[in-house]
Amino acid sequence: MAAAARFFIRGAHSKLSISGVGTGAHSSFGVTLLKLSPNCSSRTKSQRRHAAHFTYQPDPVPTQYGPTQKMNLFQSVTSALDNTLASDPTAVIFGEDVAFGGVFRCTVGLRDKYGKDRVFNTPLCEQGIVGFGIGVAVAGATAIAEIQFADYIYPAFDQIVNEAAKYRYRSGNLFDCGNLTIRAPWGCVGHGSLYHSQSPEAFFAHCPGIKVVVPRGPVQAKGLLLACIEDKNPCIFFEPKILYRAAVEQVPVEAYTIPLSQAEVLQEGSDVTLVAWGTQVHVMREVATMAQEKLGVSCELIDLQTILPWDTETVCKEECFLNLEAPIARVCGYDTPFPHIFEPFYIPDKWKCFDAIKKMINY
User: What is a GO molecular function of this protein (predicted)?
Assistant: First the structure.
């Protein structure tokens, strides 16, 4: 759940808006814009600091997609894959251990239901998994590849960035691999250390030709994953693994899609805009409450949802850089490999983000 935040302070007569999203090798981002309010004060009582990551806040039950069922995040992913295999006879799911259900059980039961030719294991070779997926997609089938942990997507980096992302462009739109979706468990869980905690979306956030998506909960996970599968561009879908079981919501049973490249405003506010994705959305929800209660700062919260291409219209809905009165600050993980026993000190928790807001008020 490594993340980052940016803060901007503007003149008192400027309208609120936000800038672009920054990058970091091991980080997902909570991006924040701050406009000073006359009633804001940074003087607060001393607080005892805790190493809690976040408290999950489920979304309201959706009513526009038909009957719902209680699902956690991994079950909502399974439901999306089940819907796809049922409706698309060309769809195949492949990756390390997916045949028996996968490490996180996201494909459990699908091989028994749809057969070994449509849900099957691959060798332990991420480059080969994605390369095979590109070929399947170019041939016209729907390819859903699983990278067992996002930390191990790097051997497939060349296939994603130099092949999948460029396939349509280099052929003059004669060929494409737009039917390829790559799933990967993402972010920290509290004990994953170096190789099971990373958030590598920043590496892909600047690569034209692909789409990058991170959901915040089960309802978004199913709708955004189905949108990725239907999209005619190769997509990377990162799944916050700390939410696989912790996040539980009422999720529609039938297939539905949530539009890609469309951010969602979760909370209106007048002083500060917080922009985050994935698990960090829930951290920022707590930060927004703390800022209101302790500083008198009104926060707007936006879930970016799609990292690339991101929703500039919603986030930059007004002139964002006019009359900036403070330098840009970013709250993020340190420039070190992801630690093990020191994970609580590494992550950009609510206390670090709250402290950054206080510093900007006093700038």
Answer: branched-chain 2-oxo acid dehydrogenase activity
CB 211 within 8 A of CB 160: no
Chain segment 171-190, per-residue pLDDT in tens: 999 999 999 999 999 999 88
216 Cβ contact list (under 8 Å, min separation 6):
240, 243, 277, 278, 279, 281, 282, 303, 305
In angstroms, the CA 36 to CA 220 distance is 33
Q: What is the DSSP pairing of strand 143-146 with strand 92-95?
A: parallel
Cis peptide upstream of residue 208 (ω within 30 degrees of 0): no
Distance, CA of 332 to CA of 322 (rounded, Å): 25
Residue 101 contacts residue 78 (beta carbons within 8 Å): no
Instruction: Provide the residue type at 363 as one letter.
Output: Y
Q: Where are the alpha helices (DSSP H) in the chain?
A: 73-87, 110-114, 126-138, 157-158, 167-170, 201-204, 218-230, 243-246, 280-295, 312-315, 343-346, 350-361
Six token digits for residue 321: 């850089």
CA dist 58 → 72, 215, 236, 289, 326 (Å): 10, 13, 24, 16, 35
The residues that are catalytic are: 126, 196
- pTM, entire model: 0.86
User: What's the DSSP call for residue 62?
Assistant: P
**Is 7 strand, coil or helix?**
strand
The owner of tokens 């494409």 is 176
What would the pLDDT profile of 7-45 be if each residue is shown by its tens digit? 444 333 333 333 333 333 444 433 344 434 444 444 444
